[in-house]
Every structure is written in structure tokens, then in C-alpha cells.
Fold this protein.
Amino acid sequence: MDTKKTIHLEKKYIMHTYSRPDFVIDHGKGCYVYDKKGKKYIDLVSGVATCILGHGNREFASVVKKQIEKITNPSNLYYSEQQVLLAEKLVKLSKLDKCFFSNSGTESAEAAIKLARKHTKKPGIISAKHGFHGRTFGALSATWKEKIRQPFKPLLSNFKHVDYGNAGAVEKAIDKNTGAVIVEPIQGEAGIIVPPNGYLKQLREICNKHNILLIVDEVQTGCGRTGKFFAYEHEKIKPDIVMLAKGLANGIPIGATIAKEEIASSFKRGDHGSTFGGNTVACAAANFTIDYIIKNKLIDNAEKQGNYFMKKIKSLNSNNVKEIRGKGLMVGIGIKANAKEIVKKCNENGLLINSPEEKVLRLLPPLIINKDIIDGAIKILKGVL
Ligand code: PLP
């Protein structure tokens, strides 16, 4: 099908919740994608941080294919080897105790919110201004942006939003109904907002002091992107509940909610469930992805290439750049111009880049990126900026 027809059918048959550029991505290889007309792009979006091993990895494809040929979803009514292997890996990496599997970031938030409420018997949750946790009702209640909340009110009550990066504001907001705090280690959708050093550590201490749960949303920061498998490891803390999704299965839908034993045990049979959650294909994909990340030292690569990328952006000395921020391969560029225009120009010049906010460019490349590809991206950015 040609580009024109795809765009026509999208307008006709797909609900218009996204605005898309006028090309159709057809396939990818490593850190590059190709559109239907054969044009090549450097991909700094990677399916919004999902395709962390890059595109077209043959080993990955072979593992997923083999699993599909064996069985796709025996369902949660039965034991699954791939599921328990994945749970064991995530428990070892997080140093927590038990997992619940779902299919997306927002579902990992729903499980976390339900688990926190069941365990603490308190409905109050404190989240951060500018925070993003998903779009289902529980997750949307924790999400801050009024534009996406407003049309769906009333949301869950008992959610309070306080300034991000200010642990004191969280402590001030705690009342007798507060059961948990939910926080991103770096705010992704807000435009890569990095909190002050020690923020998570302070939140951990406050939660301990007031006997409330700390839920860390690693949906965007997790799986090695910031230079640690979990971004909370930078502050050497142990959350009570952790959420993962996006990169966990290299683009195959999956969500995971991981918790300490005493909290996890509050979920009894029937308390929560998911037909597709933890299906064998997603779990096999995630098992491969984690092993590949570790075997190929992609977490170290994320740190190294992220530092190189930020250094190169700084060296552009562009009048258009206000601020460069981030950790590892989660980079935000605060710009003076309209980001939409810049994204469009980048696309025209063969670069996929995304803008979560009006004056912010966001870089979330695959963790396999190298200096040559970064240099290529910088060359395009330089011309456009
Ligand atoms: N939490 C964070 C931090 C996210 O960045 C996102 C998505 O961008 C979500 C939750 C929701 O994930 P999903 O879109 O998979 O539901």
C-alpha cells in the first residue's frame, strides 16, 4: 500500500487521538528506520523508548518466533515457564520480591495503585506536578496535565499533586488518608525533568517516617536507559513498589509491577488480573531483552553514549538551545523555537525526534546507539537548529 493510501485510510478508520507526520514507517535496522518510499531516518524515538535493542534484531525475532510457534498465551489460569523466569530476573534486579504482569505502563500503574490501596487501606496518593503515569482512570488521576484530565472528570478523588523535586512539599501534603507517594525518577513526558540529587532518598525517608508506600514509576526510565537498570539505583534506595513497561520486551507490549513481599501478599486470589498480562510471547521477549542488555553491557553504553550526546549538543553552541538535561540516553533539549517546527525539519532531514512539550525536544534512542550514529544525528540537528 502506498503512503497516500495509508494516510487516507488512517483519516477514515482510526480515531484521531494522535497527529502524525506525512510518511509511513515501513521497517527498521538497528538505530535506523526506513519509510515506505525508502527514505532512511536515524531513530531517536525508538517507539517512545520501547525498542531499546533497536530494530530488526534477528536473534530477538527468532526467540519471539519460536515462542509463537510453541504457544502464545496459555493464560494466567496455568503455570508458565517464561513468566516465572522473567519474574525471577526482575526480582533479582530490583531486590524486591514479587511481580504482577500486565501489558502497558498505565496498567502497571493501575496494579500499583490498587495494591497500595489494598495494602494500606488508605485511598490517598501523592503524585507530582507535571508527572505522567498513564491514561486509564487510576493512572490518569496520578497524572498531572490538566488538558488530558479535564475531559474525563471526575477522576479518582484523594490524589494530590505537589511540586516535583521538592521532598518537603510531599511531607507537607501527607494526611491521615495518605497511603502512598508515586513518582518518576526523571519526568519523561514533562520534557525530561531531572530532580535534585537526593530527592528519591529524601522521599524514601519521608515515606518510612510516615509509614506510607513509595511507588517508583520506572516505565520510561527503566531497563537501563539512565545508566542503571532502575533509575532509583542512582540513589541507592529500595522502593516499595516499582512499575516497568516500555523497553522491557523491546517493543512487545508488557507491563510489570514489582513489590516487596509484605505488600505483594495483600493481593489475594482474584484481587487483580489480566487476560494477556504475562503472556508467554511478551515474557520470552522480555527474558531475551534483559539478557541481551546485560550480555552486551548496554546499561554502560547508555551512560557513555548519553554523556557523549549531551556533550555534542552543548558543543553546537546553538542560540536556539536554552538547556540540555537528562541522564544516560534520556535527554531533553529545552529550545527557544517551536518544537513542532524543529521536529518537522528534523524528519525532512532524516532524523526521528520527538517533542513531549512545546519547547522541548526529547531523545530516547535505542540503547545500542554508538558515536557514529550520534555524530550523524548531531549533524542534522546542527543544520536544523
Ligand atoms: N508512566 C510513565 C513514566 C510513562 O512515561 C508512561 C508513558 O509514556 C506511562 C506510565 C504509561 O505507559 P503506557 O503508554 O504504556 O500506558
The pocket of pyridoxal-5'-phosphate is lined by residues 104-106, 109, 132-134, 184, 188-189, 217, 219-220, 245 (CB under 6 Å). The chain has a mean pLDDT of 98. DSSP finds 14 helices and 15 strands in the chain. The domain at 3-56+298-384 is CATH 3.90.1150.10 (Aspartate Aminotransferase, domain 1).
